[in-house]
Amino acid sequence: MFGGSAGAESHAAQVFVCVAALAILGRLDAVDVDTLAWWLSERQLPNGGLNGRPEKLEDVCYSFWVLSALSILDKVSWIDSGKLTDFILSAQDIEGGGIADRPGDMVDVFHTLFGVAGLSLLGYGGLRELDPVYCMPKSVTSKIWEARKGEGGGRA
What we know:
It is built from 6 helices and 2 strands. By secondary structure, the chain is an all-alpha fold.
């Protein structure tokens, strides 16, 4: 897997960064996709939430970090999407808005962004489809790549 340095403990956010970089470079062939997807899918806990490392608590932000990497690898089906959706929604503040790191905690912009991004990657109704590499709507990144093609450039 991927850690912050050679020999360091693997971490789901670092895995995302490396997988997204390899996707941009067109080099996903450099990883063992099934082993990497297995490690990522093992981040799901019985309550449906995802953690970033073994033996750690679930956190809504990993709904993006783990799901985006799984999406790039075409392995989102390796986790229980329904349980993860329920977990993310259970961490929202129904009255004031926003999403927290886990149910009962204070909401913040960081976890709201990654919770909504995770819901988008899960295909939750009413949300725009997300580009898992760039954490932007696919409608936006598609326009960028089309414009670059017209200028003689390709997709990076």
